[in-house]
Fold this sequence. Notes:
- This protein is mainly alpha-helical.
- The protein folds into two domains: 3-101, no CATH class; 115-195, no CATH class.
- It has eleven helices and two strands.
- It has a two-stranded antiparallel sheet with strand order 1-2.
- It is elongated and about 70 Å long.
- The mean pLDDT is 86.
Amino acid sequence: MRMEQVLSRENLLEALHRVERNKGSHGVDGMSVSELRPYMMEHWHEIRTSLLEGTYKPQPVRRVEIPKPNGGKRKLGIPTVIDRFIQQALNQAFTPIFDPGFSENSFGFRRNKNLDKWIRRRLRMIIWKQWLKPKTKIKKLIQLGVQPYKAYEWGNSRKSYWRISKSPILHKTLGNSYWSSQGLKSLYSKYGEKRHLFD
């Protein structure tokens, strides 16, 4: 991977759009996301040169404390918007190279990976395991609205628990509406509700 690829126009524009879309608070320099684009247009030549020469130095992160739900404070480091932009450009360039080497069960900070989906799949697997016997599985699937012949087919499947948990039949019967009815809230939605605390 050459730095020229990281600094390609397409990659930089995508990084800029992502930083602007994510918004967020300012770093130690006080620059807001809305000020990033005009600043980059004026100073891009110097920043690009320092990146190509390896002399670019990120600024310190701004330390803030946010309240925890159970009391106490959680420390958070907020980079400057310029550093977030450069980090995003690097991330976009390196992800296609390194992402294939990660486990398919690794969800942290990975594009197109969603912890909510992983939790729901894990819960589907647990329920499938709890149903244990084929007879119970067939009965439960029928109760959840599956046609009897399909319930019989899946209830007698010899596929692994983890594999079945990704099946269309469990996606449909133990999908998002099922988990909502059980009181399971989306972590992503919860984050959306609390995100203002970071700004």
